[in-house]
Design goal:
Number of helices: 2
Helix content: 40-55%
Low-confidence stretches: none
Mean pLDDT: 84
Shape: globular
Length: about 60
């Protein structure tokens, strides 16, 4: 993906999270290994480093 596409996906995720927080809707998105790595990195407070190769394989 290019930068613009990444930003659009991020915008969609942010809006989904906002909507989930304001309704009784429960998210059915699975936490795969790639997403868990991202969650752990953000929760650790570590500086987010640029990934030179994007991969959803972990």
């Amino acid at each position: 993906m290019n930068v613009d596409q990444h930003l659009k996906v991020a915008q969609w995720h942010i809006e989904q999270a906002r909507l989930h927080a304001t309704t009784q809707h429960g998210c059915g998105c699975p936490v795969n290994e790639h997403y868990q790595k991202i969650i752990d990195e953000v929760e650790s407070g570590a500086k987010i480093e640029e990934e030179l190769v994007c991969s959803t394989e972990g």
